[in-house]
Specification:
213 residues; alpha+beta; four-stranded antiparallel sheet; 7 helices; disordered N terminus
């Protein structure tokens, strides 16, 4: 079973001057919805800078379940960790819409970082924050499902200012690491308690719960 997420990484990582270098060194490539850019376990010889569109980042567990690590939008990179290390891919990246990108080889990525040392520092800080966020997220698996659902909805509200989390139940299940059925039961109880409003393809947080960190 594949479970997906609809939150897009909010950070626009690539400024205009870095884009100029990427366009100079890289090769433009367009993907269609459903195309796989990078395969888990594949050789880390390149990465992609996303100009427009959305990409989904996933891994598959030993039990065959697909876990969502995140979604990447415009002005972000995918595959950069493996390209920097020259290591096998740690995740699969799939286009979730028409996706316009520039492909950079490992050498071209390193050249871009050398030309823009301030951006290199920002990229490293961003990667560290992403790893920390994933660690915190999956630590929540040992906690109550309702708390995990509330965490996702509240974080979305904090980051976007939008109380409406637009996703299918499968997608929300991917974020909290639970089954679709368990999430549906949890949301129904939260609706009965007046915490959320449920609509097809969305969940609206009515009562924001402070996040304890």
């Amino acid at each position: 079973m594949q479970v997906e997420a609809t939150q897009v990484e909010p950070t626009r990582l690539i400024p205009a001057d870095v884009w100029a270098t990427i366009r100079e060194l890289g090769v433009a490539r367009r993907f269609e919805d459903g195309d796989v850019l990078l395969h888990h376990g594949g050789e880390g010889r390149s990465c992609y800078a996303i100009r427009s569109g959305i990409a989904l980042v996933t891994v598959t567990s030993t039990q065959g379940a697909t876990l969502v690590l995140g979604r990447r939008g415009p002005d972000t990179l995918v595959g950069e960790l493996a390209a920097l290390e020259g290591a096998p891919r740690s995740a699969t990246v799939t286009a979730k819409s028409q996706l316009d990108t520039y492909r950079l080889t490992s050498d071209q990525l390193h050249a871009t970082l050398e030309r823009h040392p301030d951006w290199a520092v920002s990229l490293l800080e961003h990667l560290a924050g992403r790893i920390r966020s994933l660690t915190e997220r999956y630590a929540l698996r040992s906690e109550d499902l309702r708390r995990r659902v509330t965490e996702v909805l509240s974080t979305h509200l904090e980051e976007t200012g939008d109380p409406v989390f637009r996703s299918s139940r499968e997608e929300l299940a991917g974020w909290v690491g639970a089954t679709r059925e368990a999430v549906i039961r949890c949301l129904q109880q939260m609706r009965a308690d007046g915490v959320v409003l449920l609509r097809r393809g969305s969940v609206q947080l009515v009562q924001a719960t402070p996040i304890t960190r």
